[in-house]
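Lab meeting minutes (informal)
Scribe: AK
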Amino acid sequence: MPKIIIGEVVETLNEPLESGRYPAIVTRASLGIVQSGVNAGAEKLELQIRIAGKNTVRELLIFSASMEWKIFRFVKATSLADVGDELELTDKNVVGLSFDVLIVKEPKTFEGVTRDVNIIKKFLKPELTAVDAADDLVY
């Protein structure tokens, strides 16, 4: 049995963040197939997204006509491709992408226990800081 020395708890991770806009980065991705529901049999890309350097949220991009809107928003927010471009979205080319997210804090019940969780409502292009905006000016 492994032994460890327990240290002080510095910060509790995955405490839900308040609803709002936060920076995010894809830390892990895996391809798979949707097993049940309306999109059963469709390919999916499961993302682990680190929000504000604190919380990890899982998000699914499902490759079906009814879910294209979500993929389009993700691609636009990450600047991975432009409208009209053909793109192969894989677990390899999304890890490390950064963008902003609009999240909400909502109660969810798991196995009879209700707790607050963060849910991504929208993928957004990162906000420019005043310095970044000044650098983008054309003279």
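Next up, CB showed the second protein from the same session:
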Amino acid sequence: MKINIIYILGLLFIFSCDALDDIVSELDENEVQLDFDYYIQEGWDSFESEDFLASINFFDYILNAYQSATEEVQQDIVFEAYHGYAWSNFFIASTLFGEQNSNQRLEYRNTSYNTFFIADAILDTISFDSDNYSFDYDCDILAGKVLHHDYKIYYYLNQYFAYDGDLEYLEDVDIYSNGEEFIDSNGNGQYDDGEEFIDSNNNNKFEFGLQSLVTQMNVNCSDYDFPYAEIDINKINMMLVKDYLRKGMYSDAASFIETLNLSTINLEFNIEIPDQDINNEMYLIGDFLNKTIDSNDLYSINLDTKSVSIEVTPFLPCNFYDLDMNVLLVGEDLRDELLDCVDTYFETSSEIIFRYKFVNGSFDESIYNQETNLSSQCSDIDGYRTLDINLNTIEDSIVINSCYNSCSQSCFNN
């Protein structure tokens, strides 16, 4: 009996050891993955606090473990590490200012670009959707490529002007602006993996060009918004607008802007003035701060209701039409309007100012037909009334009541 008990205990011990090994092995594997999850989290926490070097190191720790095969790393973790590493390298480059850091900036940007391709290749082989982060990974990778193209255009233009107009740099600009040539084997009008192309910059990657990449973003990522920095579809689109302006393609820039789904606000202006004081016609003249205000910004006031409604686009306030002739601006007029509204975009913070005044009578006949009696209480140094619009809380409609040639609203109390 005693021997049987010892035998059974021996079996239990042997069995327990095997089971314990399995349990320990399973715990070790889970601990490793938890450890890697920690590094991913720390990487993005460092990124969010703009410590991009620390962010690079956290993601690189995982990549080193994967590349050296010292530890088994799951493919979704590998992908997340490459994704974070690509963004971290891109953003650390933006912290390096001055000509002395030019080469280092370029190195970080190129590392970022190459890493986006690696991440893209891994993403194509796995089914992955993170429960911890709000990334749209496909769109993130596409956005990273757009940003790199925009940077390369800027970089080679600087090189062109720095080296006395060396045309080789303009060829590089063309690669990233218009894309590389390819043989469209299946006749679908776009480059597909495996099709032959002329690798003009010898980097073994097909460059789609900025226009093609931005078009893809608008088709597939129309609501894109990167969660850790101010990069959204609007900023992506502005990169193409800038490229059109660089190339003098003003009609293309205007046409592209008109296709964008930008938020608008209806401004309803009500003006009170005694009927006997109206000079047959009345107008509102106005536009946003930093834009030239001229006859193209005249809006006719309905004399029966003494009101006028204007639909404006605060984010990119371009007005491509001659309001008198109701035709599209052309030539220098179109160029000037584009430069004005794009400059306004780059100078815009969370608030934008609409400047306006009322005109009683013909705008062309006399400057004295415009409001001239406004105090600084409601007007700026040039005599324009101002309306502050908060871009973070855009309303569908804003109603503005004004007494002609006065800052008071008492005329509406009668």
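CB comment: The beta strands are 265-272, 282-288, 298-300, 307-312, 321-322, 327-328, 351-360, 385-390, 397-403.
No objections, moving on.
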